[in-house]
Design brief:
2 domains, alpha+beta, globular, 17 helices, 16 strands, 16% strand, binds heme C, single chain
Length: 391
């Protein structure tokens, strides 16, 4: 490419500002509320799960403790600045909160991009205090794929690879995150109803886990970059303008530009990775002796599970133990109660699923490797009560 041409492209990129909307330009995704009319049991059950609560408006979603300690938790001050723009922020500037089970992070409008950015502190529910959170990427282009439904990249800077424009149809993990876009299903009549929507129960056991693996995974993407120019940590879509549709095999999209440890055969669990992938798996002597490499960070359940005899048996998926919601005459499964349906009572969750995946200081989520010589875990969600929301 001629030099002048590159200059021109950069100039063009500078004048284009990111504009973000909650909407679906292709009108494929309709939103969870639309499903309620006909699937009220599923909808009511989903509303009680953390999938529906992962992104909430500040009002009603912010943790009561974090509000009480906003100025200080007694040792550390609470959030004071926004990470990308560095501007000073107050509690009133917060528009959305992310998380509530293990930790909570805070979103404010990023005036430079039109998207959202994160604050410099996160609230740890186990310690009940503030800890530093330094991520200097926009929320839209570093988090939204796994924390919204119907995410799309609409425009990318061809020189820098930065994501310039994106959208989603709904905040949080809605029905269509696991069932694919619903517009055609809503328009269908009679027998066509069933054919027009994806149900994980109808695909192979391995493909079922892949539906969950789209988000319960850790990877590095060089094909797409954040608004700040860093590699993205998600698989935003098969291509510009498109959106992931549940049931698709995302692992084959652009393998040469993405590192998916444990999923790509040439990216083993035992390797030393860089960047955010550094220290992904436990690779100490204990792990080597057992040939089981537990997740050392959170949102890697898919990568842990792939190593398990459960997965390798070809008979079990995430959905064997977890139901994302109840159905008509179908109670929601309790994951911890599943073990005794196949094993004796010595197979307990606390023994075989130690908390190894770090999510905040001294706070970890459970491994899904199911090794027969488990290590002792650290503290996790079981050591806390239910979240106490403000209002
Ligand atoms: C106007 C009523 C209506 C609405 C609205 C509706 N559905 Fe359905 N849905 C149906 C009917 C009818 C069936 C077929 C039931 C059957 O034949 O067993 C169905 C079946 C399904 C199935 C099972 C498909 C299968 O192959 O097993 C899923 C999953 C589903 N719907 C999800 C959704 C989602 C997600 C939404 C919102 C985007 C939604 N539905 C909105 C009426 C509706
Ligand atoms: C995290 C993924 C996930 C989300 C979110 C989700 N579902 Fe499901 N859904 C599933 C899975 C997995 C099954 C198959 C469960 C089974 O067969 O045990 C299913 C099954 C269904 C079925 C078939 C009947 C049944 O109950 O098994 C319907 C209808 C349905 N979902 C509707 C919805 C609606 C409506 C929403 C939103 C309110 C929703 N789902 C949200 C994963 C999800
Ligand atoms: C679009 C991304 C996405 C998909 C797809 C997804 N999840 Fe999740 N899941 C999340 C996020 C984000 C959270 C964190 C919710 C929170 O703690 O507020 C979560 C939390 C969970 C939890 C813990 C919540 C709790 O109630 O303790 C379980 C279990 C879970 N997911 C299972 C599944 C299963 C099983 C599937 C596939 C059928 C699935 N997820 C598909 C994003 C996703
Ligand atoms: C590849 C998908 C993915 C990406 C990218 C991602 N997350 Fe998550 N996140 C998850 C999943 C899945 C969980 C649930 C925990 C688990 O699975 O271990 C989660 C959990 C969380 C939680 C804790 C929820 C709770 O209830 O305590 C917060 C907070 C969070 N994410 C914020 C973010 C932020 C901020 C970003 C961007 C900087 C981000 N996530 C990027 C998938 C992702
Ligand atoms: C649907 C049946 C089923 C359920 C439910 C189930 N398991 Fe298993 N489990 C198996 C099978 C099958 C194997 C593999 C046996 C083999 O190939 O050696 C296995 C193996 C194991 C192993 C040994 C792995 C090894 O390397 O030898 C552990 C540990 C284990 N399960 C723990 C659990 C725990 C904890 C739970 C509950 C959270 C659970 N299982 C739920 C069927 C099940
Ligand atoms: C053999 C049963 C089993 C299978 C298969 C399974 N899980 Fe779990 N999972 C559990 C149990 C048990 C817990 C702990 C629940 C509790 O403490 O109440 C758990 C916890 C979780 C959590 C919350 C982490 C924590 O520390 O509480 C997430 C997220 C999750 N599972 C996702 C998945 C995903 C994604 C898959 C598939 C890749 C999967 N699980 C497969 C049994 C299972």
């Amino acid at each position: 490419m001629a030099r002048g041409c590159v200059g021109l492209l950069i100039l063009v990129a500078l004048v284009v500002t990111t504009s973000v909307s909650a909407g679906d330009s292709k009108k494929e995704f309709v939103g969870s509320d639309k499903c309620m009319v006909c699937h009220s049991e599923q909808h009511r059950s989903w509303k009680t799960t953390f999938h529906s609560k992962i992104v909430q408006p500040r009002k009603g979603g912010i943790l009561r403790d974090s509000v009480a300690k906003w100025a200080t938790d007694g040792r550390n001050p609470g959030p004071t600045t926004a990470n990308v723009t560095g501007k000073a922020v107050k509690l009133d500037d917060v528009q959305y909160v992310i998380g509530s089970q293990w930790k909570q992070r805070y979103l404010v409008k990023n005036s430079e991009t039109g998207g959202f950015e994160l604050l410099n502190k996160q609230f740890n529910r186990l310690s009940g205090g503030w800890e530093n959170y330094g991520n200097k990427n926009d929320w839209n282009t570093n988090c939204a794929t796994c924390h919204t439904t119907g995410y799309r990249v609409l425009d990318v800077d061809r020189v820098t690879g930065k994501t310039l424009k994106d959208e989603w149809s709904e905040m949080g993990v809605g029905c269509e995150a696991c069932h694919g876009p619903g517009a055609a299903h809503l328009a269908a009549k009679g027998k066509d109803r069933k054919k027009t929507i994806f149900n994980p129960a109808n695909v192979s056991i391995q493909a079922q886990s892949k539906v969950c693996g789209y988000c319960h995974i850790r990877l590095e993407n060089e094909q797409y970059r954040t608004a700040q120019g860093n590699p993205r940590e998600d698989l935003p879509a098969p291509g510009i303008g498109g959106s992931y549709k549940a049931g698709e095999d995302w692992a084959i999209w652009y393998p040469e530009h993405v590192t998916i440890p444990g999923v790509q055969p040439d990216r083993p669990f035992t390797a030393e990775y860089k960047g955010d992938l550094k220290g992904m798996f436990m690779i100490d002597e204990f792990a080597k002796a057992n040939n089981i490499f537990e997740e050392a960070k959170h949102h890697q359940e898919y990568q842990g599970f792939l190593q398990s005899q459960h997965y390798k048996s070809g008979k079990m998926s995430c959905v064997t133990c977890h139901s994302p919601h109840a159905g008509k005459g179908k109670p929601k499964k309790i994951a911890a109660a599943s073990c005794i349906t196949c094993h004796d009572t010595s197979y307990t969750v606390s023994k075989y699923m130690p908390n190894t995946g770090k999510t905040a200081d001294n706070l970890f989520v459970r491994t899904h490797t199911f090794g027969k010589n488990p290590r002792k875990g650290a503290r996790g969600a079981a050591d806390m009560g239910p979240p106490n929301y403000y209002e």
